[in-house]
Structure formats: structure tokens, C-alpha cells
Design goal:
With 284 residues, the chain is mainly alpha-helical. It has 13 helices and three strands. The chain starts with a helix and ends with a helix.
Length: 284
Amino acid sequence: MSTNTILAYMYDVGLLTSYLSEQKKHLSIAEIGIIDLKEFINFIVGLDLGPYTQSRVISSIKAYYKYLILEKIIIDNPSELLESPRLGRKLPDVLSINEIEGIIDSVDLSQAEGERNKAILETLYGCGLRVSELINLKISDLHFKENIIIVTGKGSKQRLIPIGEPTKKQINTYLIHIRPTLPISKKDSNILFLNRRGGSLSRQMIFYIVKNQIEKAGIRKNISPHSFRHSFATHLVQNGADLRAVQELLGHVSINTTEIYTHLNSEDLRKAIIKYHPRNRDNK
């Protein structure tokens, strides 16, 4: 699993051990029962954590107990009786093509970081990258002669993504005119997008860049860097891309995860019925 996933699991199991310690329940792992675990979950609920966070904590605890069973450290698994909160499939806001263009056009290219920020936005939307994939993208991952980039996703799995001319052109502008002027640190010499000190960008910096451009473009949606990835996939599906192809481009293990991008608005559905339903075709 990815480093972030491992750290999240360790953090969640740490919540359980901290809770037991605070409750002065000095129990061995074999002595912890379903009542203790349910009390812990009630404690988590009381912290006013969202359903997704609660579900992740429970998933971490269950994964930990599966490990204990596998290693024969315990015989019974009390976590099997834990129930996760029901989760709705919330769709993040999707940007229209005009909104995407408005955001990219709002970048001030007179500023030193303008060309870089425009390249970042073009790459987020043009290639559908996660933030972690964007900030770790290397110059050696760019294969512009073949019009592809190599992206390292979750679990260090690599995938090939075609890159379009607008994205390629903007990255080249940044590479040729901006990046060489930076005091590039030796350890980040192969990282594509750098801060003004010549080091790699943080996730927080990408969120700041996106938020800043959203405000400048006058868009009043709840937008994050992931919204560009979501828009990338949604626009592909709405324009007829095969769902399996989109799954490969996004790096999803399961097609079920990709299906969230098949949502269509009522106008899309109306047009589809008019165009494809046999009764409507007969009446043309």
C-alpha cells in the first residue's frame, strides 16, 4: 500500500490504543472485546467526525484484526461485528469546459510563478492527475515525442497517460523559460514543478494555487484540485469515452470506482433519449 495509506491505518489504530489508555483499560489485544470496540466507536462518533472518517477508522481496525488473525496472535475477531456508517456517494463539483478555460486564462503570466501555475492547471485537467501524482511528476516521466507521460499512482503503480498539445506546450514553456532560472536543489533536480526556492511543491501549495485561481475566475463552486481530475473523467465519459479506458487513465483498481464519473445531467439524458431511443428515431 502507499505510504499515506499505511500512515492513516497506523493513526487509526493509534486512536484505539490511546482511547483504551485514557479509559484506563489495561487490556492485552486478546482481551479486547466487542463491547470495548463499540465503546470506542461511540467515542469516535462523539468527536463529531464525518461518516467517511468514521468508516475509515473502522476499516483500519478491521484490517488490524485481520492481521492479528493471520499472524495467529489472536483466535477470535471481535471487529467482525462492527458496522460502518452508511455512506452516500457524494459527487464533487464538476467544472464545465468554459469554467476550466476561464480558470486557466485567469492566470497572471506577468508573475514569475504564472507560467508554472498555468502548467499545473493544464496538467491537472489535461491528464487527470491526483495531487500526489502531480507534485511527484518527474522530468524523466515526460515522453513528449511519444505524446505520453508516466505517472506513479497509489501503491507505486505506474500508468501511461497520453498528453495533449495544450498541456505539452505549457509544460515546455515552463521548462524552457522559468524552471532554469530557479535555484534548483540537488535532491529535487528531476522534479518537474518546483517552488521559487527550487524545491518540490507541497500538497497545500497546490490547494492554494487552485483556490486562488478559482477566486480570480469568479467561480462560486466548492472546487479543489481533485475537481480538475473529476472534470477530466466526466468530460471524457460525456463525450463517449469507454469506461474501461477512463478507468485505466485514472489508475482505478476497480471499475466500480470509475462509475461515479458516469453521472449525467438531465439535459444529457433528454438528448440521449431523443437521439437513441428507437421510438424517437422512428418519428424523425
